[in-house]
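JOB MANIFEST
job_type = single_chain_structure
chain_count = 1
residues = 241
[input]
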Amino acid sequence: MARALLEVRGVVKRFGGFRALNGVSFGVREGERFGLIGPNGSGKTTLINCVSGALRNDAGTILFRGRDLGPLPAYRRTRLGIARSFQIPRPFASMTVAANLCIPLEYAAHARSRGADVAAEAREILRLIGLEAKADVRTGGLTQIEMRKLELARAMAAKPSLLISDEAMAGLSSGEVDEILDLLRRLNGQGITVIMIEHIMRAVMSFSERIVVLDAGEKIAEGTPGEIAGNKDVERAYLGE
């Protein structure tokens, strides 16, 4: 069995008197395709913000390769190998697609890119993502799916060992969803561990080897896609009594 890359142990996050996360625990194995799902307001984004460093958890521990992430700011977590994409892509609109990758290559991953040809690395990531032909185009001219691919490319420019894909398929057509699924599988095939947060059930079920389900800030289920699909607690969380 592969070792745990990420360990979430009893994580609690409060906003005033509201507990957005209440003792959430799970592990993600090296090289795993991992799904994180739950109805709106279940705590998924809050949890990922705690993992990435955008928020600090109030209790519990988050470990990456056995190292406690608690005292580390977001940029240092990125340099350790944790990268995320965002639900709403916000590229630098005045810059070309390739230039949008050069910034994270130079700053977020500079310790691992020292002496490298940043422009060449940017082109290689775009080739992998399928945007090489758009390298010199300003981002305002991209289609919606191209924007989603660019968002993933920007995350990849940080050279992660763990990629958190936060609703990369929202608003896409069925065929476009399949394109993003294929892309994430190829990235995983290169050894990158992927956590997928997604509301499109067919996508997360076909992609994930294991899934954790949150509801109202608590973990209510964990298992294979088949086990999750047949779980009554998950059904109640999504459909009600």
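[summary]
Strands lie at 4-15, 18-29, 33-37, 59-64, 67-68, 82-84, 162-166, 193-197, 210-215, 218-223.
The two ends are 37 Å apart (CA to CA).
exit_status = 0
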